[in-house]
Amino acid sequence: MKGALLVAGTTSDAGKSVVVAGLCRALARRGVKVAPFKAQNMSNNSVVTLDGGEIGRAQALQAAACGLEPSVRFNPVLLKPGSDRRSQLVVRGKAVGTVGARDYFRHRQRLREIVAAELESLRSEFDVVICEGAGSPAEINLRDTDLANMGLAQASELPVLVVGDIDRGGVLAHLFGTLAVLEPEDQRLISGFVINKFRGDVELLRPGLDQLTELTGRPTLGVLPFSADLWIDAEDSLGAVADAAVGRSAPPVGAEWLTVAAVRLPRVSNSTDIEALACEPGVSVRWVAEPSRLADADLVVLPGSKATVSDLEWLRRSGIAKVLRERAAIGRPILGICGGYQMLGKHITDRVESDAGVVNGLGLLDLEVEFDAAKVLRQVTGVGVGRAATEGIPVSGYEIHHGRVTHSGDPAWLEVDGAEEGSVRRAVWGTHLHGLLESDDFRRAWLRTVADRAGRFDYLVAEHVSVADVRSAQLDLLADLVDDHLDMARVEELITSGAPADLPVLGARLRTPVPGGTPT
Predict the structure, then answer these.
(1) What is the pLDDT of residues 460-494, one digit of tens each?
(2) Which NCBIfam families match (predicted)?
């Protein structure tokens, strides 16, 4: 098998990322040498690659589905939103500046060349490349600058599958409309549809699928069922949702549960850090965005942020900062990761991200942080330190941050690459390390300490949970869904042969103006 395919979506969060991961895993299990590719991603969930670059978390997950280490080749352009109007531009893993929608246009030709070269290189090295679109190809106002949807498909002659989420409602209209608004040269590459998150009897949907085929000339190549066992968060699927559960926690080993409240910051980044906690039996994890939801939590987690100073101010406005100070005063556990760690300190000096200068932190740690224009991007290994249950236990993780610790008067929590890292004060912990809690032995020992501090003496830590194994099982579940519910024979034919030559063009008359400016 040799070729490539683009998976587009009717909307953001339609299921593109998980369908690509499922296809990658299904093909890899067949012995196909396969790689993922997303030309341009917009996400604050990112990971550090072995070569010290930065890519979207979804592409790292898709790489794992293929049995590969993450690489900047799989996501050459990454936009990390810091506000509603400005994003950090990351090219081939390195931040090159901050852009808005208008000035981003100036970069498009250079980025097109980079994207084309990376995809060509991957196609020469791998049997199959499964590409993921961005947002929706129906965003026709952005077509001229498109790098990741039909612009990529046309440049590389990629057949395109369009995924729609039936859970949102109106999926048949979404699929039809996505095709109909495209120009003829783009339509000729749309080769089929996939419906995601279906609940119920698929035979009740069948007449609608048949009519969709009659109207468009394209088949629906699969209906993926909703699976309660699938909770993997491949992208920024949090959206504006708060008070949402994370994962599918198994019952506790002992007599008590541990409850975790993860604060849903407006510009949260690397939200997947808390997945490791959700893997543990008896640990219930929820995203929360208002202070009353923290009251009964045994542990509160402040995750990373792409807009640390702005999100710190939001903590104060929301009342969550006051609750955190009250918790710290009585010794109730709090964990800060990366931006969340920086917020726990005394002061943040930021003339890089927000240009706010010196800003007061929450003061829960004796910590001073100053932002530097150069971003720290590295994978690290180390051990727990201090007189604690985690002392001497190996850890690994990765760092993505502009903030440098200029002073820490609290004991270190970790030693990584020969240097002290993180801080501990009573029941407040902080670290710059993303992925730290995926170190299974360290996580278990630390959770035992958290349970004791929270008074959950009958909470017992499971001794068998491996986060890597849980993620691998999730990828296998995705591949099983793809194998069982997609017409893989036809998908493989598209990969090897490209889009069929006889696909009809729709909707030309919809784009023809009539007097008065109303489309017919």
Answers:
(1) 999 889 999 999 999 999 999 999 999 999 999 99
(2) cobQ, PRK00784.1
Token couple for 2: 């040799």
Q: What is the pTM of this model?
A: 0.91
Instruction: Considering the candidates 107, 401, 432, 434, report the single residue annotated as catalytic.
Output: 434
pLDDT tier for residue 515 given thresholds of 50, 70 and 90: very low
For this structure, is 434 an active site residue?
A: yes
What's domain 3-74+106-231+472-511's superfamily in CATH?
P-loop containing nucleotide triphosphate hydrolases (3.40.50.300)
**Domain chopping of the chain, boundaries:** 3-74+106-231+472-511, 254-461
The pLDDT-based confidence of 233 (bands split at 50, 70, 90) is: low
| pLDDT over threshold 90, residue 392 | yes
Q: Tell me which of 338, 402, 432, 485 is the catalytic residue.
A: 338
Task: Mark whether 432 is an active-site residue.
Answer: no
